């Protein structure tokens, strides 16, 4: 193959060539509530591509090679702006060994492609210097920051979406929660009780009111197991346990409305009687349970006994007596427990 030695240096005419141009391309894409975005480092590096112009018989042939020696497809050539170039007076950095290798690779590729016997001549070697941009965007709200790396050819660089480090949501709208986490703005919601700005997933819906609030203000109803604002919890008129208003009917919680006959041999009864032997004097027990307590009721000839026992510790949470024919209960204070149970 014949060859000439003409080497030209050039760069895509319209590629961003300064950090300032990178900033102009990236920053307008983002909105930062009560904060800003800035660069936390940006490097523009010239990387070497090659265009080899051949004559094959009477036909022109152009071969483009990337820095790694791979041949570029036409869409890549267009995307990097290699068809509209501006000539450079001098190369931005040393290039000889890399160029020699790329030319060898390109000539080999062209020779393989043009194996029909017609003469192949390398006319021009154009070294194309494409800028690669690499850096970090920093989103700042007050003293808190979050970084977003970027890396692409300067000409094709697009603003990358901010990926929320807490929710993985992608966005171009950045804001901070009240405790200073820099997150996707769409993922922020306001606690109806405290006004605190937190992540959507950190708010819990109260089943009684529909209001959404932070977890420390919520309670789990031991009867319905629904989440309820603590201040909305109401005491059952029978067991006196705080429950969700949705678990109450006729002033009673669902557990107290559903007492079932139980024998003393039932493991739950056996545990309670073992812990509180004086209860064994009572008969005709009925039982119900919530997530936290057993509600036990005994019925005698003249009186009824209501006992609420913690399921874990078996501590007495409530002791009350009532007449057999009246529905009300008289709550017994702890100092009188022994006296009442002995009767
Ligand atoms: Zn109850």
Task: Give start-end ranges of low-pLDDT stretches.
Answer: none
Bound molecules: zinc ion
Number of helices: 6
Number of strands: 28
How does this model look, in words?
The chain is mostly beta strands and 343 residues long. It has six helices and 28 strands. The chain has helices at 19-26, 74-79, 96-113, 254-257, 267-275, 337-342, and strands spanning 2-3, 7-12, 31-32, 35-56, 59-65, 85-87, 120-141, 144-153, 162-163, 170-171, 173-176, 182-184, 188-190, 197-199, 203-205, 212-214, 218-220, 227-229, 234-235, 242-243, 248-249, 252-253, 260-261, 285-289, 293-299, 303-310, 316-323, 330-331. The longest helix is centred in the N-terminal third of the chain and has 18 residues, at 96-113. The protein starts with a strand and ends with a helix. The mean pLDDT is 93. Zinc ion is lined by residues 236, 238-239, 241, 252-253, 255-256. Zinc ion binds next to strand 22 and helix 4.
